[in-house]
Amino acid sequence: MSSDRQPGDPRSLFAEYFRRVSTIRLFASGPAAPFVFRFATELRAQGYSRMVVRQYVSVVDHLGRWCARSGRLITDVDEQVLDSFQRHARNCACVPFGRHGRHYVVRYAVRRFLRHLRTTGLSIAPAPKRAPAPELVRDYCSWTKREKGLADVTLAAHARYVTAFIHVAGDDPRRYTAAVVRRFFLDQARQASQARTQKVIDAVRGFFRYLVALGRCSDCLLGVVPRIARWRLAELPRYLPAGAVDRLINACDPNTKAGALDRAMVLLMVRLGLRAGEVASLRFGDIEWAAGHVRVMGKSRREARLPLPQEVGDAIVAYLRHARPRSSDDHVFLREQAPIGPYLRGPALSYRVRQTMQRAGIDTPARGAAHVLRHSFATGLLRHGMPLEGIGALLRHGSIETTAVYAKVDIDVLRDVAQPWPTKEGPHATP
């Protein structure tokens, strides 16, 4: 290899990932060489592994040659062109992993490359736009965010459900009838699960409240929205006993990057009762080191300051010093795998908690593993004698009724006050 290459020479970058001189020359001389060079530079900056960069560069180089043979410019690539290339890649022996069934590499590579072209302004083909939500839905979302402070993710879900209702009932609230509302929810119940149907019910009920508040429909429609049969406080909250919590914390090896990350996040959940989404959205400015507090923005944009225990603070510092990837992002916790960046949603953190539970030999729930730690925090406080009002304040519950579920976790006391089930031999037996 020549030693007089400039740092901006594409071959200098390709030499970091490919050993053969012929392969380096092939990529550096292809019709997509400038685009491949920028793309590989971005992948390297985002922490992608050498293997992934090699695979993606190979696919994009072939995409450029395929576009040149078909008379296309690579800047004109859009979703339709990429679909054609993926069909071509299934039968082309030149595309790595194409013929041998690993189509997902080609699919991820071309989709990731198209996002790169659009974010850098190199793509001429615009991104496909979703159909805009009806004006009535946009007004409802603006009002709800202003009055109730719902998160953007929740508002997006409400917008989808209310839009589906408007497609059935129309955009004139004065024409909504009980028959139309009931028919819509019956169709939803047949097509979706009980949990999803409940989310649709909540969204449409909130939509009707917005219409009633503005005087655009009768308040009788609120009574038409059905309710799914649910017995409040009927189940015991799932939680981990103190011994299982200790095993979970010890399963996070602070000497590894992944273990340091897991330990800091788990301690925030079991010592402060934070939700997974609250841990994911934690920023450097939210930690007041001098005062020993953590500022948390919970549901409905309710802000609270919680005490930062020494154990939790030490775990966060250890993660920041030894495990956190270098990044200008101000989120405290970043993904350890490429693309390096913050966790966008709480379920990704809950999945990490579930994996840690499995390593610790703890029975893992099918979903909501992170919320089990929140329940464990609350039940631990209750066993130490804290009243429900104090637990609700630390958990930032809007109502004491939400906290009342933890009143049932002391099974020994419940056994003492429980009445025996009537039998045929008992004095109160039913005939």
Write the layout of secondary structure elements.
Elements lengths: L9 H5 L6 H9 L3 H13 L4 H20 L9 H12 L12 H17 L15 H14 L3 H18 L8 H14 L2 H20 L6 H5 L17 H9 L6 H16 L3 H5 L6 E2 L4 E5 L5 E5 L2 H13 L23 H14 L9 H15 L4 H8 L4 H4 L7 H7 L14
Antiparallel strand pairs: 1-2, 2-3
Helix pairs in contact: 3-4, 4-6, 5-6, 7-8, 7-10, 8-10, 12-13, 13-15, 13-17
Could you please describe the fold and organization of this structure?
The chain folds into 3 domains: 10-119, no CATH class; 135-224, DNA polymerase, domain 1 (Orthogonal Bundle), CATH 1.10.150; 242-414, Intergrase catalytic core (hpI Integrase, Chain A), CATH 1.10.443.10. 55% of the residues lie in helices and 3% in strands. α3 (33-45) runs antiparallel to α4, α5 runs antiparallel to α6 and α13 packs across α17 (369-383). The radius of gyration is 28 Å and the shape is globular. By secondary structure, it is mainly α. It has helices at residues 10-14, 21-29, 33-45, 50-69, 79-90, 103-119, 135-148, 152-169, 178-191, 194-213, 220-224, 242-250, 257-272, 276-280, 310-322, 346-359, 369-383, 388-395, 400-403, 411-417; strands at residues 287-288, 293-297, 303-307. It has a 3-stranded antiparallel β-sheet with strand order 1-2-3, with no helix packed on it. The protein has 20 helices and 3 strands.
Assigned CATH class of the largest domain: Mainly Alpha
Say how many strands there are. 3
Mean pLDDT: 81
CATH superfamily of the largest domain: Intergrase catalytic core
Name the CATH architecture of the largest domain: Orthogonal Bundle
Order of helices and strands: HHHHHHHHHHHHHHEEEHHHHHH
Low-confidence stretches: 1-7
Shape: globular
The profile of the biggest β sheet is: 3 strands, antiparallel
Radius of gyration: 28 Å
Class by helix and strand content? mainly alpha
CATH topology of the largest domain: hpI Integrase, Chain A
Number of helices: 20
| Fraction in beta strands | under 5%
Give the % helix.
55-70%
Alpha carbon gap, first and last residue:
96 Å
The strand order across the widest sheet is: 1-2-3
Number of discrete domains: 3
